[in-house]
Amino acid sequence: MSSVTNSEVQLIGRSEAVRTILTDIDCAARSGAKVLITGETGVGKEVVARLIHQRSARAASRLVTVNCAGLPDSLLESELFGHVRGSFTGAYRDKPGLLEMAPNGTVFLDEVGEMSARMQVVLLRFLETGEIQRIGADRSHTRVNVRLITATNRDLPKEIASGNFREDLFFRLNVIRMHLPPLRERIEDVPLLFDHYLTYYCTQHRVERPEVATATLDALLAYRWPGNIRELRNVAERIALKSTGAVLKPTDLPSELIRTSEAVAAAAPAVGQTSQVEDMTTRMLRQGESFWSAVYPVFMQRDMTRDELRRIIEIGLESTNGNYRLLVALFNMPPDDYKRFLGFLRKHSCHLPFQRFRTITRTPRNFAVAG
Ligand SMILES: Nc1ncnc2c1ncn2[C@@H]1O[C@H](COP(=O)(O)OP(=O)(O)OP(=O)(O)O)[C@@H](O)[C@H]1O
Ligand SMILES: [Mg+2]
Q1: Contact (Cβ atoms closer than 8 angstroms) between residue 83 and residue 28
Q2: Which end of the chain has fewer CB atoms at under 10 Å, N or C?
């Protein structure tokens, strides 16, 4: 549940979002202020916490990671603050807590949103005084100088509203806030990440690295990645384990990815026949061209019918499970274009209701291989 590490970490990506994250990391590293990192599971919260530590003046000291989820209060409190001999059954000797083990270093409290109400009070008291009181001791034992970085995939303001998280603690933790967007909102990072992890695992498992077919890459781009980068990393490892060195086809991908790939294939040109719709979708889905340069001018010059535009939108919605925000990324537009894009569709009566494209998907919280 906890680790003390200084190993190298990498933040891969070329999206605007990743560039912003890197700038924010450097900015956070220059100060000693508390950082709260939010984002869905597997988006890289721990990677960011480690980079902040490694690039900070505290890098020579330790980074201690404590996962607050799934531990009874007494264990978590003892891990963090330590205990004195005889304070509970099995406490044979005094034991320092992890906070004491990182003097002048950083403590990363992961899944802080899972802390019980009582532990939230204990943490708040520590943040107010900087004093460590071991379990069973009647006064504080010492003061420590540690920097606190916390992370959660919960929506803390919502948790506060429903009475599950203390507002005063939130304000203490939320000094520098970094929100990491899900992978589907920075889909342009997928090829780079997949390439990196495929090479990494093929080298590790000593197998030949396969070439990735264009249709396979399309399937990776069209997928929603509910488990974000951890899920992508696991997919790359599974593929590496099965690799024979042959070109990687869409059918070699896990089934949940193939379903999306079929929608993309439906948009691919059939032999000997390329319609306007097929040509446009190919340019966007395979060649990375933006909707604004591929489709928009043609439609505005009336070289494309509304029905053709609707069909293009339909193909996009089929690939993204009815999600217009994802469709914006799929059609290579920056996230900020979302409103403009929907406005354009509405103006020309091409805004299709998304509901019929929705299928029920489960959002797994944990994947087999923890990163
Ligand atoms: N930008 C990135 N470049 C390379 N690898 C990444 C990147 N972001 C995340 N990873 C990898 O993805 C995996 C998940 O990242 P991490 O553990 O930091 O996610 P998390 O947000 O803490 O997830 P959780 O909420 O489930 O704890 C790790 O193996 C990490 O190395
Ligand atoms: Mg984590």
Answers
A1: no
A2: C
- Which atom from ligand 1 is nearest to the alpha carbon of 152? 25
Average pLDDT, the chain: 87
pLDDT single digits (tens) 238-264? 999 998 889 999 889 988 787 655 665
pLDDT value of residue 371: 30
- The answer, yes or no, to whether any atom of ligand 1 lies below 6 A from the CB of 330, is no
Integer Cα distance of 182 and 39 in angstroms:
7
Q: Report phi then psi at 259, rounded to 5.
A: -55, -45
Query: Which fold would CATH assign to domain 184-264?
Result: Helicase, Ruva Protein; domain 3 (1.10.8)
CATH superfamily, domain at 2-181? P-loop containing nucleotide triphosphate hydrolases (3.40.50.300)
12 lines ligand 1 (CB under 6 A): yes
CA dist., res. 12 & res. 22, Å (int): 10
13 lines ligand 1 (CB under 6 A): yes
Closest to 190 in 3D by CA, of 223, 215, 214: 223
Boundaries of every domain in the chain: 2-181, 184-264, 265-357
Q: How far is the CA of 228 from the centre of ligand 1 (A)?
A: 8
CA 248 to ligand 2 center in whole angstroms: 30
Radius of gyration of the chain (CA): 25
Q: Which residue has the tokens 């009582």?
A: 118
> In whole angstroms, how far apart are CA 92 and each of 2, 87, 88, 151?
21, 9, 9, 33
Counting from 1 in the atom list of ligand 1, the atom nearest the Cα of 233 is 12
Kindly give the number of the ligand 1 atom that is closest to the alpha carbon of 44.
Answer: 18
Q: What pLDDT does 59 receive?
A: 96
Residue carrying structure tokens 């390329």: 274
Q: What share of the chain is helix, strand, coil (3-state, %, to 5)?
A: 50, 10, 40
